[in-house]
Design brief:
The protein is of the alpha/beta class and about 450 residues long. It is about 40% helix and about 15% strand. It contains 16 helices and 15 strands. Strands 4-10-9-8-7-5-6 form a seven-stranded mixed β-sheet, sandwiched between helices. Strands 1-2-3-13 form a four-stranded mixed β-sheet. α9 runs parallel beside α10. The longest helix is centred in the C-terminal third of the chain and has 21 residues.
């Protein structure tokens, strides 16, 4: 990229510290300036068009430029641009959205609490887990189990539950009350000659052995994404979630389902908990909740989780937690309209109907010499590339991801995988267009090998 002095790219380098980059490399190369979006497409500041194959950050369900969301935000800004939910105050959009979420929850839920990101939501759930244990007179029951390669955010508590080393290194994480069990990805961690059923049994034994080692009386909760997103789109092996729930019930451990990526149709059901028959105590949602048009996340909790917390707040005199933007009326107004669009346009059904087209397309690409395998469910999937041993870990995926972007599609490389999570409004023809771009990029990279 040639960067002109005083251009937006140059000023971006000069003044803007970015997340999720090598900061020194960013100072050298700068970033791609995305200027507008329409449907499944975004456009950079030169006018070049890209299929947004990751829906932004796994999140823009209804696509870019949805006028109903723009109008919902504008109307709420004119009526009540801001108010808080502290000190016995509320606003209409937050009440309406909470009621709607309870009505569509995959299992009976009692209350909804709003925050602004998945990280904030998971962080608060950790605090509430500890608050609840104290309320129950179990001050020793504070440990939280995450999973290797699991991702739940980057705040101190959420980042500690996350099981990705880069999110821990030099940040002094994880906290010592967070422990991690094995990653249940059969393609990555299955042993030679091991069946999928045997692998599931080993994963479940690892979990139970960890609980016994740490002491069941010290463990409060288990966190898990139904499909692990930022770990590389890792789908669970057969019988995994059924077995996990049996173990957690045996040892009186809460189940927190992180549906920040999966929720609102990604797996072909409204919630992935329905896909895998997961019955969580707490459900964390964000991203597709508002299609990321506004920062918004929500925590749904069942009555078993909520009641001890309410009792403790009564004993203390206050539930002493809250953010300035908790239940922000513009964010919840946009979220409410967004969920209505998902329901009215049957975008969940669209994901289910297009699943075969999507997965078959990935499987066809997996026949390419640079690709080892494919995986996915609904409209989320990945191609696992054959590693380039001499260039180092992730080099193949990085090269292919850069070539895909040059050809006109934006995806994400994670480890040796390139990951796909297009807007739920995508059509069969657009899926074919996206994969044709990927094939061209794979061929171009292959020509250089």
């Amino acid at each position: 990229m040639s960067i002109t002095p005083n251009s937006v790219e140059a000023r971006d380098i000069a003044y803007h510290m970015h997340p999720a980059v090598n900061l020194r490399k960013f100072e050298e190369k700068g970033g791609l300036v995305i200027e507008s979006g329409d449907g499944v497409y975004v456009y950079d500041n030169t006018g070049k068009r890209y299929i947004e194959g990751l829906a932004g950050l796994w999140s823009v369900a209804v696509g870019f430029g949805e006028k109903r969301l723009v109008e919902a935000a504008a109307a709420q800004l004119q009526k009540l641009p801001y108010y808080h939910s502290f000190n016995y105050k509320t606003n209409g959009p937050s009440v309406d959205l909470a009621e709607l979420l309870i009505s569509i929850a995959p299992v009976p839920m009692s209350k909804v609490h709003f925050t602004s990101s998945g990280s904030e939501a998971n962080d608060l759930v950790a605090k509430m887990v500890w608050y609840r244990s104290n309320a129950l007179g179990k001050p020793e029951k504070k440990k939280i189990i995450g999973r290797i390669k699991g991702y739940h955010g980057v705040t101190i508590a959420a980042g500690s539950i996350t099981g990705i080393p880069a999110n821990h290194t030099s940040f002094d994480l994880p906290l010592d009350r967070m422990v991690h069990t094995s990653c249940p990805s059969f393609p990555h961690f299955g042993e030679e000659g091991e069946s999928e059923e045997a692998f599931t049994a080993r994963m479940l034994k690892d979990l139970e052995d960890l609980i016994v080692k740490e002491g069941p009386e010290t463990i409060a909760a288990f966190w898990g994404e139904p499909v692990m997103g930022a770990g590389g789109v890792l789908t669970p092996p057969k019988g995994y979630w059924e077995g996990v729930q049996v173990i957690l019930k045996k040892y009186d451990i809460l189940l927190v389902a992180d549906e920040v990526i999966c929720g609102f149709g990604r797996t072909g059901k409204m919630f992935a908990c329905e896909t895998y028959d997961i019955k969580p105590d707490v459900l964390v949602i964000s991203k597709q909740l508002s299609s990321s048009y506004m920062p918004l996340s929500a925590i749904m909790m069942n009555d078993n989780f909520y009641q001890p917390i309410a009792d403790e707040s009564d004993k203390i005199g206050v539930f002493a937690h809250g953010f300035t933007a908790s239940g922000h009326p513009v964010a919840t107004a946009v979220g409410l309209e967004n969920v209505k669009i998902i329901i009215e346009r049957d975008l969940v059904g669209n994901a289910a109907r297009l699943e075969k087209t999507f997965l078959d397309g990935l499987a066809k690409l997996a026949e390419h010499p640079l690709v080892d395998s494919s995986r996915g469910i609904g409209l989320i999937g990945a191609l696992e590339l054959t590693p380039w041993e001499q260039e180092g870990a992730g080099a193949a995926a990085l090269a292919v991801a850069e070539a895909i972007q040059e050809e006109g599609c934006i995806i994400r490389n994670i480890g040796e995988a390139i990951c796909f999570c297009p807007p739920l409004i995508i059509t069969a023809e657009q899926i074919e267009e996206m994969f044709a771009i990927v094939l061209r990029a794979l061929n171009k990279v292959a020509e250089t090998r």
